[in-house]
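Step 1: inspect the first sequence and its C-alpha cells.
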Amino acid sequence: MKVHSYNKEAWNKQVETGNRWTQPVSPETIAKARQGEFSIVLTENIPVPKHWFPTLAGADVLCLASGGGQQGPILAAAGARVTVFDNSPSQLKQDRFVAEREGLTLKTIEGDAADLSPLEAESFDMIFNPCSTVFMEDVRAVWRECHRVLRPGGILMTGSMNPVHYIFDLFKMDEGILEVAHAIPYSDLTSLPKEDLDEQLEKGLPIEFGHSLTDLLGGQLDAGFVITDLYEDYMLESPLHNYHPSFIATRAIKR
C-alpha cells in the first residue's frame, strides 16, 4: 500500500465529514490575530506558549502538514509570510478559503512531508508542524527535510503522539478499556489483526504509525536540531488521559 496516496484520500474524506482539524477559523479569530492576539495548538488542548515563537512580522513560516484553514491563516494574519504544505488538496482548499475571505496572502503546496524538494534549502525561519507525523511512515525523513529547509537558528515546533498511546488495543480503547496489545514502533498495517485493518480501510480512516521516542526525539537530534523545550498534553476522549498524556510537543532549533 502507498501510504502517502491512501492518507491523501483519507484526509480529503475527513474534510467532507467535518473533522475538527478541517474546519476553517472564524473572521473573529483572524481579526484578533491581526492585533497580535492568537492561540494555536500543536497537540489537542494546550496552546503553544507565546515565548516559543520568534517575531512573526516578516518571518518566513512553513506550516507543515498543517492544512485545514487554521494555523496557517492565523500566522499569516499575525504578520508572517506563510507557506502551507499538506498532503490533502481538500485541506489546502480550506486555507485558501480563509485567505480569500480575509484578504490574506499565503502560499499552498500539495506534497509529502518526507520530501520537501519543492522548497529551497534554508528558506524558512520557522516550521509549525501540528500532530501529523502519526500519519507518516518515515518520521526521520521528515526531520531531515525540516532541517534542510530551515535557516540556521530556525525553529521547529512539532506535536507528536506519545508511543504509549499505541501499546493499547485501539478498538477496546474506544470502549473505555485499556488492554496492552501492541509493541512499539506501531503500524496499523502490521500491528492490527487483518479484520481490524480491513474495517479501518473500509471506513476510509487514515493509516497511523506509533513512532518510538528514539525516532520522534532522537531523530530530531540526529537531524541536527537542539530541543529547547517540550510539554505534554492529554487526549481527553481517551481513557488513557486518567493515567498518562498522549501527546508531546517540542520546540527545537537548527544548530
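Step 2: inspect the second sequence and its C-alpha cells, then contrast the two.
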Amino acid sequence: MSFSTTRKRLTWTAIAATAALTLTACGGGDDTAGGAASGDAADPIRVGVVGASDDKWAVFQEQAEAEGIEIELVDLQDYTQANPALSQGELDVNQFQHLQFLAGYNVDAGDDLQPIGATAVYPLGLYSSKHTSLEEIPDGGQVAVPNDPTNLARALLVLQEAGLVELKDGGSSISTEADVLPSSKVTVTPVDAAQTPIQLQSVDASIINNDFVEDAGLEPEDALFQDDPDSDAAKPYINVWVARAEDKDDETLLKLAEISHSPEVVEAEKSASGGTAVIKENTPAELQEILAGIEDDIRNS
C-alpha cells in the first residue's frame, strides 16, 4: 500500500530540548517514485513523537525493524506543530496525543486527521498535602485544576466521579468551571497545569497531570483519587496513533499501531509511565466513532 501522493520530501533538523519544531525542505520529486511503504530503504516512515529519547521508542523501533519496517522518529518539541506537520505531508503518522486533543485540532483547523490505533490511558489523579482521604476534604474546600481546556474538562469529570463537584447536565469532555453547580462540595480554581503541584501549599487538593507528578516529589499511589481508565468518561483521553484521512487504512501504518501492542513495547510503555499506563485495545473504527462524537460536542458547544 502506498501513502497519499501529497507527501513531501523533507529532512528534519536536529532539535534541542528547548527548541521549537523546525522543518527544512530538501527537494521535491514525485512521491509515487518510491517511499517507505513501497520499500525504499532511503525513505523511512516518518513518525512524529514527543520524547524520542524515551526507552520505549528504541524498543518500538527495534520491533518495527524486525517486521521489515524502517522508521524515522521525529522528536516534536512543539505540540502545536505536530498535527499541521502531519496534515501537510511532512510526517506519515504521529503518536503524541489523545482523542480530545485531536478533536480540538480538527475542529479548529477544519482538518480531518484520523486515529488508526490506541495506545494507553494515563489516569489523572487528585493529590493533597493537607488531607489523607477524600472524606477529609471539607465542605467549601478549594481544589486547583489545570486551566487548559482539555485538562480542565477532564479534571472536573474526575472531581465529579470523586463526589466533590456536580456538573451541569452531568458534564462532558468540554465542561468548564462555569459548569460546576452551586451544590458542589468544593470550589475549583483553574491554574496553569505546571502550577498545580505548587498550589498544594495553599489549597485542599490539586488535580495534577502525570507530567508533573514525579517533579513534585509525588508518586502515583499518593493520589487520593483518580479516574477510571475503563469508564466512558475516559474514552476521550485514549492516546492514539494518527494519520491523514486518506491513509487511515494503509496496511503499513496499521501495522505500526499493531507493533506498539507487542509485549516488549507494552512493557517499555508501562515502565516509562511509572506503571500508570493502562493499555487500550480499541479498534480504529471505535476510535474514529469516539472522535466524531467529541468533534460534534465541540461544534455544538
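Step 3: confirm your contrast with the notes below.
The two ends are 39 Å apart (CA to CA). The chain has two domains: 10-122+234-300, 125-227.
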